[in-house]
Amino acid sequence: MSLIRILVVDDYEPWRRSVCSTLQNVAELQVIGEVSDGLAAVQRARELQPDLILLDIGLPTMNGIEAARRIREVSTSSKILFMSENRCWDTANEALRSGGSGYVVKSNAASELMPAVHAVLHGKRFLGSGLKDSNLAETAQAGQRDRVTAASPLQGECHELRFCTDDEAFVRDFSRSIRVALDNGSASLVIATEPHRAHLLQKLRADSVDVDSVVARGLLTLLDLADSLSTFMGNTATDETRFAAMPRVILEAVRTAKEHELHVAIG
Question: How is domain 4-142 classified at the CATH fold level?
Fold first, then answer.
C-alpha cells in the first residue's frame, strides 16, 4: 500500500513537531516536509506535490488562506486541511472557499486531527466542533451555498486582527473580505479614511462589484473614520454617552441583514 505523503505548515515549532509526531505514528502516513511560512508552503507544495497539506492560517510572509489559493494552482491534486485556533466561522468559510477540504480548531486537535485527516483523504469535508456557528457545518455538509444568520454586534462573537504592511495590502485584503461577505449575501460595514474608502471602492469596481447596487441594498455601509471617532470620543477620554451612539449605526446594518437572514461583517 502506498504511503500518504503529508506537508505540515505551521510557524510554531513545538506545535508542528507534535503534529508530525502524531502523524508518524500512523503506518500509512508519511510526513515529507515541514515549513513555517506561507510562501515556503507554496514553494514546497510545488516541489513535493503532497497528497495532504496541514495548513495554519496565521503564518508569516503569506497567510494560510492566500497560500491555499496559490497551492491550488501549483499542486492541484493536494488536499488541504486547515488547522487554526481561530474559531470564527467567517474565517473558516473563507478558508474552505480558498480550496480547503477541512478545518480543525487546534484546541480540539487531540480528538479531531486524525478523524479530519481520514475524512479529507476520503474526499469528505470536515469541520471541527470548535467553530462558533453550526450553520457553516450544516451548509458545507449539504454542499449548498452558505446561508448565515445575523448576530448582534454587541455579542462580539469573533474578531480578526490583521496587520498590513502598506496601504495597497490593506485595500487588497479588505476588498477580498468584502467580496467574501457579498458572495455569502452578507452585509459589511467599513469605517476608514476618505483616501482608503476611495481606493477600496476603486478596487471593488475593478473586481466587478456593483458598488452602487450593494450600497443601495444596505449590504455595504461606508463611514468616515474621523466622523465616527468624533461620535464617541471626548476631548481627553472616551465619552460613554457618545460611545453609546456608535452601535446605532451598526444596528442599522444588522437590521438590514436580519430581514434577509444575513451576517454582518465589520472592519
Answer: Rossmann fold (3.40.50)
